[in-house]
Write a structure and sequence with these properties.
This protein is of the alpha/beta class. It has helices at residues 15-18, 58-68, 88-92, 94-103, 112-115, 127-130, 135-145, 169-176, 185-197; strands spanning 42-43, 51-52, 72-76, 82-87, 117-118, 124-126, 149-155, 161-168.
Length: 199
Amino acid sequence: MSPVPAYRPLPQQSLAATGCHVLEAFNPPEVTLASPALHVMTDLVRVPAATIPPDATLLDVHQSMLVRGVRLLLVAEDDGRIQGLITSTDLQGERPLVLTLETGVKRDDLRVREVMTNLERLDALSIEQVQHATVGEVVATLKASGRTHTLVVGPDPQGGRQLVGIFSAAQIARQLGVAIQTHEIARTFAEIESLIAHL
């Protein structure tokens, strides 16, 4: 067994002798509809993607969302290949209720693969588009798709595509200064449009 190294305490200094001031906190740039879209994108190069396996239960999903403070989880296999996504809206939607009635399985015990939005039904923006887009264009895209999130893909080293970012209507609304009180997409966009009307 190798010996544990002896760590020495670092020298400290008296604040009374030197004085001390609080630094101004970094304030991110104010976001408007004309701001670059990248200002409101969750950059998955800097923030790890929140994932869940397809055989997890809806209770697992709910707990994972609470712990991570997110409303969307990517459904991924062990090798990282994305199978789809599941959102808080999906959890509260009609599909879990229908499945519970059809199968007799309790809602919390339903599997992610039964409720998620499959990859075949997902569209994504390219990072090349996003780099030249505005926040307003992303809001219009989300509204047209009828979803509260959209994915952003970019090139991977093998010549394919990989997930590089996520746009969230709720996140955009927060950065625009709109208070969102509900997960409902219609309310989210109504709040954003109300803000636009007063700009």
